[in-house]
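On clarity, I found the account of how folds are encoded harder to follow than it need be. Since the whole study asks how a given chain folds, the encoding of that fold should be made plain. The format is easy to grasp once an entry is in front of the reader. For illustration, here is how one protein appears when written out as sequence plus structure tokens.
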Amino acid sequence: MVSSPQTRTARSGKRPFLVTSVAAAVLLVGGGGVYYAATANGDGGGGGSTGASGGAGAGGTSAPSAPKQGGGPGIAPGEPDPGGSGGTVYRVRGPLPHGPSSAAVHRPEGRVTSAEVTRLARALGLAGTPRLVSGVWQLTPEKDTNGLRLDVSERAPGSWTISRHDGGPVGDTCLKGKECPPPGEAKPPAGGSPVSEAAAKAAVAPVLKAIGQDDAKLDATQIMNGSVRVVNADPVVDGLPTYGWSTGIQVGPDGSVVAGSGRLVEPAKGAAYPVIGAQQALDELNRAEKGTGAAGIGGCAIDPPAGKAQGEGDPSRADSPCPAPKPHVVTVTGAVFGLAAQDVGGEVSLVPAWLFEAREQAGAKPYTVVRTAVEPRYLTAPAQSAPPAKAERQISAYKADASGRQLSVTFWGGVCSTYTVTADETPREVTVRIAEKPTEPGKACIAIAVEITKTVTLDAPLDGRAVVDGASGQPVPRS
């Protein structure tokens, strides 16, 4: 059994763009691009935070939240108005900045070493020596099965997770007198009040320094479960701000790190390509959004006059029963040139992009609209690393439920395809394959990456078996 993917199909445009909000935990695709948002609070309250795709995100996990219609009152930023809007129009307030004439694409390269993993482990307060198990560096607690464990993919960029051990055998069974959590479940931290934002930032500072992100932009406004504060870090790469490459670390009420995820290795700087300016990027954004409202995709959004059939008449003529759709206006209050995560030939890279700050209305929380600044023809995978086929994509992480039979896998995919998951089981491992099917074969599609999570039901509980990516043959790290 396969669950629905956590995306919706986006409309096509010349260059991809993404949108991120600070209002609620959603991942929506539509209106020509992707709308990401980080949860404002695990309990439904608290402050906002800058979200992450493909990284830790606000919750310190690698999978996005389930889709939800809208990021606040009215329609979602960048989404067509179901009441008959003529699409979204981004109107700039004030001058836009100048940018460079060219910029480089940054791609993951190489392997993560034991020394790099050990440096991260020491910053997290973990002892021991990491072991390489089928392409994943692992460091597990020696005795306490409720302790923290670290998993790092050997393949760059070294996606890592720090989490409570799942209660499986680690040298000995649970220590006498201690409660063992069910397999696959992390025991939540003891209740209490969350630490201050300053204390949380201080707690994660050694970790960020160990992974070379001590200059990252931090947000520590998010609260989870009423007592855990989350620090989200957006790193600076090659002197530029990033989008979609975040690290998320959870800090418990006692000031210790209790969970988190991110990437250990900064992507390597590649070739530089010509880039467009902020005004051209905004113009392309508006052209992609023009006419995406309900009246533009299926007849009138209101009842026609008496004697006229639904959709009868030419909307461009004065005697048409279909009124001219009104655009949904969003104000752009600033812009900065940076790097955004994007699927390039099946791997997530950082590509030059314009990051626009937008607001639905005066006083509303800002969110970011991202428009890629390089032509799609430059965004191709190197010949030596090009995948042999696009039927499958690499799985970045997995997670099993308490029963061990519901296996959820996270991977990067495109917005113009649907995906199905299958699992082949043996007594030692479970091999998972992702099959891709274009929604509109033969039609041009924007090259934009979205992180997708799908679930498959196993015939038997996972029960310690390794999860293997069928496309690469490599083991999949646990989320």
Q: What stands out?
A: Residues 1-84, 167-188, 293-298, 384-392 have pLDDT under 50 and may be disordered.
